[in-house]
Amino acid sequence: MNYKLIALDVDGTLLHDNHELSEENKNSIKAAASRGAEFVLCTGRGPVNTIPLMEKMGLGGYVITHNGAVTVDIKTQEVIDQFPMDAEGLQPYVDYCREHGIHFDVNTAFGLYVDKADQMSTKVRGMYDEVFLEPLNLPHWSELSEPVVKFSAFGDLDTMNQLEKEWNTWNSPFYMVRSGDFFLDLMHKDASKGEALKRLAASRGIEREHVLAMGNYFNDITMLTFAGKGIAMDNSPIDVKAAADEVTLSNNENGVHHALEKFVIGVK
């Protein structure tokens, strides 16, 4: 199959656990791009720390960010598609996190906001430093200049498991998804990586069967099942592997490189 659009998750898929891009992955992506494949990073990250990765690989085009809530043109940094949330509808979740001491952040397309940014713990500060983000103080909803597109809660595994169980009992107007063991995200009910990828492919005139996607976590399932070929990393939970058509090596073993060699570069 000639894959024209290749969607890659970032953390846990494209990057090693140390958040670095390997030469093997980078070179295979360049080789596939030289054969005409168009790449899109499809990630829970925002554009601010996703676009530099595309530029590092010498790629143009688009990035699908915030778990599908925002799609951005790399060259112009224009938001071409997004799913705005009802920000004030998030207040019960904000109140819950504050009451229970759970860290959270509020995301617009290009902005990241937290409570009392100058009082974050060393652990939380380190999380943002690892992915090159600088949070700002959360203002009143009416003072935000861009629409809110994602709300994320952050904590240890037990805390996030309990939080997910609790919030699943709420009659929520939002789409809730785990984007990692330590993250629980809320977005517009129609937002997902799969929906954003579907809309981008349609805008590019690319049929579903010519789309290949790779990911490793629950927030990747919608894009793995939309794509003509969905590939899970070996470091994926079993439910993610079950949703995929294929399983490649882990992110630390350059699974992206091996999958591209098998399904794109090595195909005559």
UniProtKB/TrEMBL annotation:
InterPro entries: Cof (IPR000150), HAD-like_sf (IPR036412), HAD-SF_hydro_IIB (IPR006379), HAD_sf (IPR023214). It comes from the Bacteria. It holds the Pfam family Hydrolase_3. NCBIfam families: Cof-subfamily, HAD-SF-IIB. This is HAD family phosphatase. It comes from Paenibacillus gallinarum.
